[in-house]
Amino acid sequence: xxxxxxxxxxxLQAEKRAAEKVADARKRKARRLKQATRRxxxxxQSSQQRNRxxxxxxxxxxxxxxxxxxxxxxxxTA
Length: 78
Hints:
The protein is rod-shaped. The longest helix has 63 residues, at 2-64. By secondary structure, it is mainly α. The protein is built from one helix and no strands. 81% of the residues lie in helices and 0% in strands.
């Protein structure tokens, strides 16, 4: 009987160690996921900033480059 209870205790301890390992693995996975997400968000933000600057430069160039012309449909009437 004593060997049975000792075997049960060993199984319970092994189960507890396994549960701790699983919990640690889940924590590591969550931490890696957060880091990867953070890196991805930072990359998107830097990309957005670069694109924003490029678009603003193009818009300013178009707005400031005004060439006055007479429209082809305009008819001079006397």
